[in-house]
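The authors assume throughout that readers already know how a fold can be written as discrete tokens. For illustration, here is how one protein appears when written out as sequence plus structure tokens.
>
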Amino acid sequence: MAAKSFYSVLYFTRKEKRGALFLLILIALLCSIPFLIAFWYGNEVSNHKNYGKEISQLNEQAAQQKNKPTSFEQRDDYKRRYPSHQKSVYTPTIKGVLYEFDPNTLDEEGWKKLGLRDKTIRTILNFRNKGGRFRSPDDVGKIWGLFPDEAERLKPFVRIAAINQPDFKNTYKPYKAYEKPAISIVDINAADTSSLMALPGIGAKLSARILQFRNKLGGFHSIDQVKETYALHDSVFQKIVPYLTLNTALTPININEANIDQLKAHPYIRYHLANAIVQYRMQHGAYQSVEDIKKIMIVDTESFIKMAPYLTIH
């Protein structure tokens, strides 16, 4: 009985075992904190020391670099090995005689006399040959290859001649209003394309249509017939009427000899009328007068008046 009570004292439940394990882990962590702190700060101190050494090395290198030459060409060993590569400073040796001159007209010998080099003289002559011109003494300083001290030496002696400008006052002509050329009178039965195009409002197309209509008719017997031309507006016709006249005879059709095709080609005679004229002539013989066609039933008074000037029996 006593042994059983002794074992019950040493026995732990599952919950008590977990609590004991947690306490052991917590104690171990607390004991290791001093060692972790010492390890961490030991690395920081070491890094700080290394950083200080790097800063010191960089400062020493900067001081050494400051005392060195700024370029490779300035180093002593380079100067000893390549003395001909050293940069030269221009020291002008001006020769020549100064005198007043016009840079726009001075020849090659004149520039040489002033002490300019041949290459610079060629530059000036090429500039002038291409139409260039010096307009002020300051332009001399713009010459390519001419050093500033040379330009300042020449400027006081530059004398540029004035350019002769045309006298626009004497050459001016007063404005003269445009005068439309006078329009000639046109014989409508003898006019060609160019004479018709000279009329107001008549272009190439209208002039061609007027001539085509005139040729089919055999000529105009009245000026009013012109307005029957296709696409000729009355407003245009009224403009050209004052310049039209009739001085040329017509070319009539002989109704005793013409066939159907010849008759129907006339603008005032259609096929049925041309056929009736020929058939009547074949049945009744030759026409004795132009008025005989009025005996044809389909010929009315209006048609006869339009056709009569273009018909003949001779």
